[in-house]
What does this fold into?
Amino acid sequence: MELSDANLQTLTEYLKKTLDPDPAIRRPAEKFLESVEGSQNYPLLLLTLLEKSQENVIKVCASVTFKNYIKRNWRIVEDEPNKICELDRIAIKANIVPLMLSSPEQIQKQLSDAISIIGREDFPQKWPDLLTEMVNRFQSGDFHVINGVLRTAHSLFKRYRHEFKSNELWSEIKLVLDAFALPLTNLFKATIELCSTHANDASALKVLFSSLILIAKLFYSLNFQDLPEFFEDNMETWMTNFHSLLTLDNKLLQTDDEEEAGLLELLKSQICDNAALYAQKYDEEFQPYLPRFVTAIWNLLVTTGQEVKYDLLVSNAIQFLASVCERPHYKHLFEDQNTLTSICEKVIVPNMEFRAADEEAFEDNSEEYIRRDLEGSDIDTRRRAACDLVRGLCKFFEGPVTGIFSGYVNSMLQEYAKNPSVNWKHKDAAIYLVTSLASKAQTQKHGITQANELVNLTEFFVNHIQPDLKSASVNEFPVLKADGIKYIMIFRNQVPKEQLLVSIPLLINHLQAESIVVHTYAAHALERLFTMRGTNNTTLITAAEMAPFVEVLLTNLFKALTLPGSSENEYIMKAIMRSFSLLQESIIPYIPSVITQLTQKLLAVSKNPSKPHFNHYMFESICLSIRITCKANPDAVGSFEEALFMVFTEILQNDVQEFIPYVFQVMSLLLEMHKNEIPSSYMALFPHLLQPVLWERTGNIPPLVRLLQAYLERGANTIASAAADKIPGLLGVFQKLIASKANDHQGFYLLNSIIEHMPPGSVDQYRKQIFILLFQRLQNSKTTKFIKS
Amino acid sequence: MPVTKEQSERLKKFKNKGKDSTALRRQRVEVNVELRKAKKYEQILKRRSISFSLVDESVSPGEDNEIEMSMEEIVEAVNGSNAELQLLATQNVRRMLSTQNPPISQIVELGIIPRLIEFLTYYDNASLQFEAAWALTNVASGNSDHTRAVVEGGAIPALVSLLSSPHMHISEQSVWAMGNIAGDGPLYRDALFRCNVIHPLLALVSPTTPVGFLRNITWTLSNLCRNKDPYPPLDAVKKILPVLLYLTEYEDKDIISDSCWAFSYLTDGPNDRIQIVVDTGILPRLVEFMASPELTIVTPALRAIGNVVTGTDEQTQAAIDAGVLTVLPYLLQHVKPTIQKEAAWMLSNIAAGPPQQIQQIIACGLLPPVVELLDKGDFKTQKEAVWVVANFTTGGTVEQVVELVQSGVLKPLLNLLLINDSKIILIILDTISNLFMAAEKVGERDRLCLLVEELGGLEKIEALQSHNNDLVYQAASNVLDKYFSTE
It folds into this structure.
């Protein structure tokens, strides 16, 4: 491909087509680009376009395409051909930095990403002048350029934060430090000076603060693995400036936005992280600076508002205090009773409150709310940070801290009792304190198992949790209901079994709640309770104990799937699966209705499968109902086939990729249930299973092999007599499987079944060919796995 | 490719069972590249004689009438043939080099080093020999270029000859100069050996040698034992060892400290090097020093024994038999975090041994202090404590692992999943897997699951699924899939 105007024109046309919403136009264009990307000069054509094209949209599109091209092709994989020719590589490396720096921000970001991908492979050995090229730009005084350099440096160096220590890594870091640490420090100082000269110029400040944020991030990366000599020698400069930036405020940098963190918040958050890193790892060297930072961060916390935009800052600041307060030689900074009380009052309690934003999420964005609250993706939330701080404080001050908080819990419950409908948030806070702070692990002290000192968990359950769940209306105070259900989940091992049994009908009842969070939590809690183990490895809650509730449980679970927002709720589906598995044969009377509802659901979601977990549990539930029913009554298999085959046919016909492996699994299960000869309906399907296209997808292979094995086990004679012409096809599948290192074991499974079940006469003629195939593979690509199989 | 993964896991298990302890034992240096400032607790490589020692006034004449000479005058006098001026100029040089910020480079650039070395051979002028040796000592105390100027000027043979000088202060100064030369690195260290430094140097050690002199000798010997790549020649080491053994009998903390440093260097190597030291029978004495109240003695003694337990099971057993496990509980609770760290490092290597040795760890009450360090130690100590637990769970029997869990290791271990170090997180996850394997064998898997969950471990492991390091993310997912998935 030449670097000609004609080629640029062609490329422009195709790039334009890749933006077309119509897949009939878009897909061929994408295919075409992929087909030519191996040609020499292709990346250079893209770079030319992103620089010189007349149309902005083409520039951006070229930059994105370029980045993706680099991502796919730059790495040289052993035993695979080099996908980018050496001349192109050299040209890219020679041009990309200046190009990135002179591009508008949107394109700069793409190129910066591309540089870091290249850097990951080539830096430092194969790209020795990159660093000097970057550092030289610090002197340019143009902060658009400087920020470009800093951003690129950040994407190059941030891997130092998570990679394992090694000679190679540390040599690289050393090299980077030698070239980069001093210029970065000078830039840091210069930028801070500029901030004060431009203190009244909002637009200048914004650029400068963006630089400071990047500088602070680079500081974190460069200091992560160990404390470099340079930074130890220059700690005074960095820490003094970090400290003063923490205390800085400037009206011009405050934002009106309540959600999005502003530059000032982002910078201070990063500084908190930097200080926490030093406090954790370089304690000895950092000690002289630490008290100052504690004071500054403390002041920051008590003066920062409740708005969402401060969340990251507040949680980082609290995390800093949390990591410091559990260090033995800093405990004196906290041990004063007044200090402890004011930390609890001014930092912890306010940050545990249920805010308007939480309430909004609870109602309108329940999926996100559940993920944060239930699945622990609340790492950066205020509540999580506040809990961590309490745990840190408890390391040395468990008595006083527990005392302070049990006082709080009581006073908040009293507030609630005065006027529940107004003060329900107080009760929420009280429950939150208990669920997150009461230690679940019972500690062995002086030979007795200690009960919890914060509250008596069972009494709290009976007096404050159950009444809410027993209330006549399942829709009143949904947040408190969710809190109560969560309490059951969390303390299920601490609360006695009698109390759990009392809770079960309450939970079943709450499956009907309108609030997505509430009925999801109810389903999840039931699922958790059903998996609990009792003595001698049986479930804690038995099918017999559940007998009175079977009907209402199943009814409410399936009804919950019809509630708005929960049609593909994975928690509910998982609870259905778990209920089947616990209840076993007591579900048989309800199977006709259950299987109808499941097939309808299956039909509905197969139009557009989007929730893999939900789908998985749905198929598991189908399998369970087949197994349980056919165990008691093998003849029932026919009715399942009747109910399911229609949907299955549709799934196979429409090639619903996500579901096909499951369909094969269910079919194998059904086929295995047959005691006699294979039904003709299955035989009709047999030829289709041998179609090569099905075997192209790796996900299909295990269930398809299993299904073919079931065919052979049940219907070898039928195949030999009625479908002998399909035997070569069957062996073709075997041939394809053993040719692959990943799937050869599946090939052997199939071969075993063929030899075991097929009448010998029907395969004799192929025997020689089979051996030839095996030996060929042994000769051409021998692997330990293959030899041993 | 599930089978290959399974296989490698099985291989790994086999390795641990078969106890290929080299995989578990960690030499001190995992990474040769240092980002940090040179360690503060290390022994000094080179030193200058700046103190005007006692010999000064008595031996060196004309100290009263200090005549200051210019650089030009010095060069002229040194290169001239007037003995008095030579002495005066050399004194001037020595004096300049004995200040706080000596102008070593300037002196080297004068080009007078070869002449100063020549003065060392003026046996009829002891004062000049002494002044020259002193000046050269201080030049050699500078950076590598400075030392090179001294060595390439041919100082080594001259200094070796001076060891047998009838004047003790001259031989002492020569010992000192050689200490600085050896301290520069293995190249010059071996140059000294090639000039047969050993015999005359060791001959200086006798019951009548003054303690001050012995301190210098011990320090120089320790520098001769120092450095790897290559290690000091074996025959020389074998000659030095008995003398070191003798020196440890002195009740002088500097002598003991430097001889311990020498032992620590000699043990910092492959197992055959360790064996030579073990064979001297010094281990019980070194263990005694580990319990010394002097930090300058504890540090090198701890290092030396720490190196020994990186060796074979038998060598480790020799250290255990010498009583190391009875001193460790005290060192694990030492006031200095660096000592705690080194002690934990040592223990991690003992924990990499066979179950009998692990049993001795338990018997000596070492589990509670380890748990304490995991919980409250400083960052580096916590990391070492994690290694202790990791090795313990890899090689320990099921009963021993149960004992470990009962001593409360789980809570602090799980808390450390928040640590800023990917490698340590990975090791903790591996350790958790080990704990589960043991729990499965005694039918306590469910209880362990519960415990991990209740101690807040589950949520931390779940959070690690979004860790940026692929291996960490995979290890976390594996633990969750294997032990916490409810399917």
Observations:
- Chain B touches chain A through 41 residues (CB under 8 Å).
- Confidence is low (pLDDT under 50) at residues 1-22, 53-64 of chain B.
